[in-house]
Amino acid sequence: MRLQYVALLSLFVSLPAAALTFQPRLEHAEWHAEGDQFECRLIQPIKSFGGVGQFVRRAGELPTFQLISRERWLGNGAATLVVGAAPWRPEHRDMPLGQVKVDNGEVLLKSDNQQAARLLTGLMEGRSPLVRHRTRQTNEYMEVRLLPARFGQAFREFQQCTTQLLPVNFDQVKYLQLSFASSGIDLSDETRKQLDKVLLLLKADPTINSIRLEGHSDNTGNRLTNRDLSRRRALAVANYLKEQGIPEGQITIRFHGERYPLVPNNSEANRGKNRRVTLYLDRLSEEQIEQERLARNASAQPA
Questions:
Q1: pLDDT tens digits, 76-119
Q2: Coil, strand or helix: which one is 75?
Q3: Reported CATH class of domain 170-300
Q4: Which of 22-31, 50-59, 111-120, 149-158 is predicted least confidently?
Q5: Please, are residues 11 and 128 in contact by the beta-carbon 8 Å criterion?
Q6: pLDDT surpasses 50 at 70
Q7: Which span out of 27-31, 76-80, 190-194 was modeled with the highest average pLDDT?
Q8: Any idea of the CA torsion for 63, 75, 20, 87, to the nearest 10 degrees?
Q9: 148: exposed, middle or buried (C-beta count within 10 Å: 0-12, 13-18, 19+)?
Q10: Same topology between domain 2-162 and domain 170-300
Q11: Hey, how many other C-beta atoms are within 10 angstroms of the C-beta on 133?
Q12: Are 224 and 273 in contact (CB under 8 A)?
């Protein structure tokens, strides 16, 4: 550990004078894991940068790496993401992972899943995630470095957190196509599996307060028959949700028959795509959530 400490210090001292570098102080560098069934995060604060570097894994997704700061350090364009060599392993070299778009919000950049996986592997090997770019104000070269110090335990806690994630997140199922067989209204095994994942999310997230089901058919048969078929399909989905405990008042049903095909009804494959119920989820706005919180607090106060 003493040799590693000296090697890191020598690395920072040897950086080009023109480079603006942000990293935690080695003696204070620390990772921590946090999260719930919706999202898990593995975080290292970078005090001098005014933010954090973090790995985020949302329910139903693989991890991404994010760089977050309240300060607008990074200039426009794309930053370079690098797996930095461990300074006490001189035989290793930096491993560039390509460029990542710089955004204007608090989340300055977000990697793809493959880049995040390689950064995590690098950290387990004692390497450092690096972001290289130009400053917004002066366009000088800059580098943001995360350190591998005290990574192992936090990573194990992060992995434990991910075992409790829901199978899907809101964005993945807020618009969902549920398929039906020709002239059929029965739910297939695959459709039930899709709905079971949605149900887990609905029961875990009280901010999702509205479900709209829109039934459709292909153009086989007459329009009245198709309209009734689309109605019965939407009802079949609604009944399954109600049987699993979803209040009827949260469910709205519409049915359109053959009027709104996804694709032209010119082949059996396309007709199969048009035989469907489209599920739409809606949730409370942040303002509505805050109003409900205030109302709950007020009702909890003694008279």
A1: 889 999 999 876 666 778 999 999 999 988 999 999 999 999 99
A2: coil
A3: alpha beta
A4: 22-31
A5: no
A6: yes
A7: 190-194
A8: 30
A9: buried
A10: no
A11: 25
A12: no
Q: DSSP per residue over 127-192, as a string? A: -EEEEEEEBTTT--EEEEE---TT-HHHHHHHHHHHTT--S--HHHHSEEEEE--TT--SPPHHHH
Write down the residue that tokens 């829109």 correspond to.
214
Query: What CATH architecture does domain 2-162 belong to?
Result: Sandwich (2.60)
223-246 pLDDT per residue, tens: 999 999 999 999 999 999 999 999
Report whether pLDDT(291) > 50.
Answer: yes
- State the DSSP string of 82-120: EEEPPTT-TT---EEEEEEEPPSSSEEEE--HHHHHHHH
Residue corresponding to tokens 């005014």: 50
Domain boundaries, the chain: 2-162, 170-300
Q: What share of the chain is helix, strand, coil (3-state, %, to 5)?
A: 35, 30, 35
Give the whole-angstrom CA distance, residue 262 versus residue 259. 10
CA distances for 289 relative to 48, 107, 199, 222, 293, angstroms: 34, 23, 21, 46, 6
What's residue 301's pLDDT? 67
Structure tokens at 130: 């690096």
Residue length, the chain? 303
